[in-house]
Write a structure and sequence with these properties.
seven-stranded mixed β-sheet, 22 strands, RNA endonuclease activity, Metallo-beta-lactamase, Chain A, alpha/beta, RibonucZ/Hydroxyglut_hydro
Length: about 450
């Protein structure tokens, strides 16, 4: 049995792993490469395997760096089933359709043909098969798998794979993206005790989140109060999926309990609005606290002075409302979307605040802003950064080094090997060293295209 790292190796994005047994070929995730230009160009390159030979796919969650290349996989001949949780399937449609629309606009401006079409997205959706947590499925005679809650986004999975080979059963666990517990709405990541091999993410493999005594909600309260007192605009670049809903959930609590001033709050993202509505379909996936609030009759995503600006015209009207105000918009890394219009307007304003609540990939505008640059280029225009820039690591959706080691520590020994994936090179290597030193388990940081025998 072989494992080939076709993405997500010494990079956070482009997650794609190929497993080859004597009888079956299958992949885990099929994501877009995001970040630097060198990474993103990989999205135009051929797959390093033949999509027509793949029997099925297992999907850990709906973020584009895990599902974004599925339309191209189908376009190039994949016809197998795609297994995912019900929330992942519904969110995948929204995210893939949005990505397809953005790609079409981008390629039209460049006067080139898009890699995929809306028809390819529809073909992907027809291949999805819903699978609930903790239900073992056997898609082929020698392979079975079980999904467990990863606590990263709604419907996200840790995947436990069992492969029969020569009368023996090997168990491989893919962590997916592990959540940073405790997180609003989400449950604690499941603990797995037995495996021969583990693929573990390492987005924050070289650092610890700042576990202040105050919670993320308290920090959010402080930033809002300080920005409002200055009379500025609070801009929050946010992923449409999960982070926006978590912010709404906490803003709802802060406002209903009179802890922050009543200022206008704008959700300036059509995709985030659609996803927020979809969340209401999956309240049974919420953690106990959020579920209890829903059962009490509280609409956890609604409160006074909240405005959903779906159309372009509604978005432009936000400019007519004087600060103080709160604007939550995509993209989460400031690489596009409506947030960059607001950043152009308010980054030069020392009264305003840019609050970063998401991972910022190498090479993105958000990463440069988080690192404290004082001048950035947006729409070919130089923009001075005089606004306060605040990064709240408490909102990270990924476990830090300590959280990753704690999760790995629940596996019973002996583990044959841990593959450290889904992280930038320095982060992956740092975690690999800690795994060897602290857990006494062999670890490997694979490179793109590397193949290993299990």
């Amino acid at each position: 049995m072989n494992l080939k790292f076709c993405g997500g190796a010494q990079a956070v994005t482009g997650v794609n792993y190929l497993f080859t047994t004597a009888r079956t070929k299958f992949i885990v995730d099929c994501g877009l490469f995001q970040g630097t230009r060198d990474l993103e160009i990989k999205n135009t390159e051929p797959f390093i395997y033949d999509p027509q030979t793949i029997d099925f796919a297992l999907i850990s969650h709906a973020h584009l760096d895990h599902i974004g290349r599925l339309p191209r996989l189908v376009k190039e001949g994949f016809v197998g089933q795609i297994y995912a949780t019900p929330p992942t399937i519904d969110f995948a449609r929204l995210l893939l359709e949005d990505a397809q629309k953005l790609m079409a606009e981008k390629t039209k401006k460049a006067d080139v043909m898009p890699l995929t079409t809306p028809g390819d997205v529809e073909k992907v959706m027809k291949l999805f098969v819903p699978v609930e947590y903790e239900k073992e499925i056997s898609p082929s005679p020698d392979v079975s798998f079980t999904f467990y809650d990863a606590g990263h986004i709604l419907g996200s999975c840790i995947t436990k794979i069992k492969i029969k080979e020569k009368g023996d059963i090997k168990t491989i666990v893919h962590s997916g993206d592990l959540g940073n517990h405790p997180a609003p709405i989400l449950r604690t990541p499941a603990l797995i005790e037995q495996a021969d091999y583990v693929l573990v993410e390492s987005t924050y493999g070289d650092r610890l989140h700042l576990h202040e005594e105050t919670s993320a909600k308290d920090l959010l309260e402080d930033v809002i109060e300080e920005t409002v007192s200055r009379g500025g605009a609070l801009m929050i670049p946010s992923f449409a999926m999960e982070r926006t809903q978590q912010l709404l959930y906490q803003l709802n609590d802060l406002i209903e309990n009179g802890r922050i001033p009543k200022v206008p709050v704008y959700i300036d993202s059509p995709l985030a609005i659609k996803i927020t509505e979809m969340y209401k379909k999956y309240e049974n996936y919420f953690d106990q606290s959020a579920d209890a609030l829903v059962r009490s009759g509280d609409d956890i995503f609604d409160f006074p002075n909240l405005h959903f600006t779906e159309t372009t015209e509604q978005s432009k009207q936000i400019n007519e409302v004087p600060p103080p105000k709160i604007i939550i918009a995509g993209s989460g890394m400031s690489q596009g979307g409506r947030i960059i219009h607001h950043e152009t307007r308010y980054l030069p304003d020392p009264k305003s605040t840019l609050m970063i609540v998401a991972y910022q990939a190498e090479g993105t505008l958000g990463r440069r802003l988080a690192e404290g640059v004082k001048r950035v280029k947006i729409f070919d225009e130089e923009v001075l950064v005089r606004a306060q820039v605040v990064q709240l690591e408490a909102y990270s959706a990924h476990a830090d080094q300590q959280g990753l080691l704690r999760w790995l520590g629940h596996f019973q020994k002996p583990l044959k090997k841990i593959f450290v994936v889904q992280g930038e090179q320095a982060a992956s290597r740092a975690l690999a060293v800690k795994i060897r030193d602290d857990l006494g388990v062999a670890s490997l940081v694979p490179i793109f295209g590397q193949e290993v025998t299990l």
